[in-house]
Specification:
Layout lengths: L2 H22 L1 H12 L3 H29 L1 H20 L4 H29 L2 H44 L1 H15 L15 H13 L5 H13 L11 H19 L10 H21 L14 H31 L4 H6 L2 H21 L1 H26 L8 H24 L7 H34 L1 H29 L6
Helix pairs in contact: 1-5, 1-6, 1-7, 2-3, 2-6, 3-4, 3-5, 3-10, 3-17, 4-5, 4-6, 4-7, 5-17, 6-14, 6-16, 10-11, 10-17, 12-16, 12-17, 12-18, 14-16, 15-16, 15-18, 17-18
Length: about 500
């Protein structure tokens, strides 16, 4: 691994860790926010959903902008916005300021996340790319593990009033350092999406060398690039961001997500769902018409004709639709069902998250040897973890065993996470043209966000309905069974991809 690659990993993965930490840490500090700021239930809901909505809405547009203007520039912008918003959130005097800051934190996170995927896709090839995405999966696992525990520690050490503020302010120094090092270390280049052409390997080597030295290519190189752009009419639209496409997709995703994250508002919010689906259909029509006019659409819809990309996108959306709810429901079961503290509820998932980090790194090393079979075996492992956890809860309802047996059974779910998420991402993006790496990564992550929001809304609603009738034991078992069904469908798609027998090409 070259010095440039090591620097890219360090600069990219630390802010990614902080942005995902902000997702997992918030559940533990919500009660402290309510006590300190006097926030209402609806205000607390927006602390959660404001981040999720703004994060999901900008992912694809941010990936496309990174493809056009340069991923380093968009990464720095995202990190800076995330850090500044975290500062405002940590100093917020009342709920409205906190909620606005959380929305902008989501925008910052949505800007930087696709750039991380694009940078790893751009500067790593073959087995090294698998390892890079494996490290990315390790970061995801660690953020899930440390978030709830760190939130609990902040509350225990600083108290309610300062503890929740520390959970936001901890992002600020990391964001400052990441922005400085990104400006110094990341190659400040953009891939120009010229029709039918990937970046020139010579330009790529020059960009990497410039990044190694921490310098820009220089005015002569810029003049030559400009001259080449003038000579090629296709390059005249290299800064074509497809603004109508950006607005249509952003609006469509917002309307689709809204009823799932704001379902408590009332039945009428569900009207947004069919409208959102209609807007997304309109967006696809626009993108095809835009491309037919010789322009460069926000997302090249031909990406979905790449079987590995479309299958992998479906697998991960279904997987997130199911598994994300596990940790929310287990935390509620521990606190509301069994009366444990928030810190204990956070610790129940710690071994699973740590195993997720380890398995992601190992899977990254072997993903090209086993291909999509590794993902399918991960899904099988997940199903075993879900069913054995349901068995533990069922035994507890009869007075047999201990809830701490879940430390073992949920570890299989964590182990599976490392076998599914990063390898699937590597294989899904393997055949995507480099010039669309950012927008493809944005599409993939948008599917994850939509799957997460749908799963949390539907599965938790099912669990709460059963809890109201029969208690937490049956509610959790029913929810785990529902999650197993969704994950099984993802496994069926994975098996179909394996049977197709079209592995990644080195």
């Amino acid at each position: 691994m070259t010095q440039v690659q090591k620097r890219i990993l360090l600069v990219a993965l630390v802010p990614l860790f902080m942005s995902l930490l902000s997702v997992s840490i918030i559940n533990v500090v919500l009660s402290a926010i309510a006590a300190d700021l006097g926030a209402s239930t609806s205000a607390l809901q927006w602390v959660l959903t404001g981040y999720a909505l703004s994060f999901g809405v900008v992912l694809v547009a941010a990936g496309r902008a990174g493809d056009v203007f340069g991923r380093a520039q968009l990464f720095i912008l995202g990190v800076s916005l995330f850090g500044l918003s975290s500062l405002v959130a940590g100093l917020a005097p009342e709920p409205l300021t906190l909620n606005i800051a959380r929305v902008f934190m989501g925008f910052g996170s949505g800007l930087l996340n696709p750039q991380v995927v694009g940078l790893l896709q751009q500067y790593f090839q073959g087995p090294q790319r698998g390892r890079a995405f494996g490290l990315m999966g390790t970061i995801v696992g660690l953020s899930v593990a440390i978030g709830p525990v760190l939130g609990g520690v902040f509350i225990a050490v600083f108290g309610d009033d300062l503890g929740w503020r520390a959970s936001f302010l901890v992002n600020v120094p990391f964001a400052i350092l990441a922005a400085i090092f990104a400006k110094t270390w990341l190659p400040q280049t953009a891939w120009h999406p010229v029709a039918g052409a990937d970046p020139d390997p010579v330009e790529e080597d020059a960009a990497a060398a410039a990044g190694e030295r921490g310098t820009d290519p220089g005015p002569d190189a810029e003049a030559a690039a400009a001259s080449a752009g003038d000579a090629d009419p296709a390059r005249r639209h290299r800064h074509d961001l497809d603004p109508v496409g950006v607005i249509l997709l952003g609006l469509g995703v917002l309307l689709v997500l809204l009823p799932f994250v704001e379902s408590s508002v009332g039945w009428f919010v569900w009207v947004a769902l069919p409208i959102g689906l209609g807007v997304i259909w309109w967006w696809t029509r626009w993108e095809r018409a835009y491309a037919a006019r010789g322009r460069f659409p926000m997302v090249d819809l031909d990406l979905f004709s790449i079987r590995s990309f479309s299958s992998g996108s479906i697998i991960i959306a279904l997987y997130f639709m199911g598994v994300t709810s596990v940790w929310v429901l287990v935390a509620m079961y521990m606190q509301r069902g069994l009366g444990h503290t928030a810190l204990a509820a956070g610790l129940i998932g710690l071994p699973a998250a740590l195993l997720s980090a380890v398995s992601a790194d190992i899977s990254g090393r072997f993903v090209f040897q086993f291909g999509r079979k590794l993902v399918v075996w991960g899904i099988v492992t997940c199903l075993f973890g879900l069913l054995s956890s349901a068995l533990v809860v069922g035994l507890l309802s009869r007075g047999i065993g201990s809830e701490w047996w879940l430390l073992l059974t949920l570890s299989f779910v964590g182990l599976a996470q490392g076998m599914v998420i990063s390898p699937n991402q590597t294989l899904t993006l393997q055949e995507v043209p480099l010039k669309y790496a950012g927008s493809a990564g944005g599409v993939l992550q948008t599917g994850q966000r939509i799957g997460t929001s749908m799963g949390l809304a539907i599965i938790t609603a099912l669990a709460f309905a059963i809890v109201a009738i029969s208690g937490w034991d049956l509610g959790l078992v029913t929810a785990f069974a529902s999650i197993a069904v969704v994950v099984s469908v993802a496994g069926i798609v994975g098996i179909a991809e394996v049977r197709r027998g079209r592995g990644p090409q080195l």
